[in-house]
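Give me the fold.
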Amino acid sequence: MPCPEPYQSVMEADLLFRPLVPEDIAAVLDIELQGYSHPWSEAVFLDCFRDSYRFWAACHDELLVGYAVVTYVVDEVHLLNICIHPRARGKGIGRRLLRHALAAASHEGMSQLLLEVRASNEVAIALYENEGFREIGRRPGYYPSANGREDARVMVLGLGQ
């Protein structure tokens, strides 16, 4: 297990974005388990290595500090998962990773990006709103939670062609 120092030195400008590969799954799972109360399983992540998915890594040197998973359906992109290592948060990495996924989707001719976000996730909601997303609906009981189920806010952003 790496010591915390590499994460403390991560700066937004030092990031490299690249497609994830199956060999990254152990690092992805480590971040996922630290980032979510109800994490995805290894099998779910491995299932994302298909043509209609894009699986992005945010790296600082050789250290994986975050990832995003999107799926393409006709001309729309659906952000399924985005997570930054807890020790690398608050440095603009999530914003840069989101912008990378948006730029790649726009370059591939997609018209909009949809996402669901926990109604209680104020930090993520603020990021999405700041990036121009708007709420278009809610999904009652969408997410599992410690107290049963939690609603999701459904948000969308049009991608300029």
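The first helix runs from residue 5 to 8.
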